[in-house]
Amino acid sequence: MEILSSPQQPDLLTNHEVMTLLTSNLAPPKSKKKPVSKKNQPNTKSPPPSAFQTSALTYLTSLPPPLSPLSLLRTLSSPKYSLEKTEIIQLVNLLPDNLPLLNVVLPEVEERFEEGVGEEILEVVKIARGKEK
């Protein structure tokens, strides 16, 4: 998902970040103030979730979550792999488990990387999914 912060460089979010953002927006605001009479109390109720929020949360909760998206991001961001930001986000979001799916996210894996790096990336992703050898 993209957050349009500037026309030149949109910010990219992982599925985990989108889900955190959506669930935090749906949570009722926490007030540390003393209770006020209902007559003088401002309307602090959050609006009901939109159809987009509901469908997005339904989709995101149906996906197998990575065990540690931050460690996966750090591992894939290493200079060893020399991946673009968009490729890293796609790897974290899609969590490919075989070479054909990896080729969808990272075009020309065999030409771009040394032999075995594609399998190594898949192993890193499998560990993040909780599917170790």
From TrEMBL:
A GO biological-process term: transcription initiation at RNA polymerase III promoter
Top-level lineage group: Eukaryota
Molecular functions (GO terms): nucleotide binding
Presence of the UniProt keyword tRNA-binding in the record: no
Keyword Transcription found: yes
Residue segments, region Disordered: 24-52
Main location: nucleus
A GO CC term attached to the entry: RNA polymerase III complex
Keywords recorded for this protein, A-Z: DNA-directed RNA polymerase, Nucleus, Transcription
PANTHER family named among the record's database cross-references: CALCITONIN GENE-RELATED PEPTIDE-RECEPTOR COMPONENT PROTEIN, DNA-DIRECTED RNA POLYMERASE III SUBUNIT RPC9
UniProt family annotation: Belongs to the eukaryotic RPC9 RNA polymerase subunit family.
Protein name, entry field: DNA-directed RNA polymerase III subunit RPC9
Origin species: Triparma laevis f. longispina
Species classification: Eukaryota, Sar, Stramenopiles, Ochrophyta, Bolidophyceae
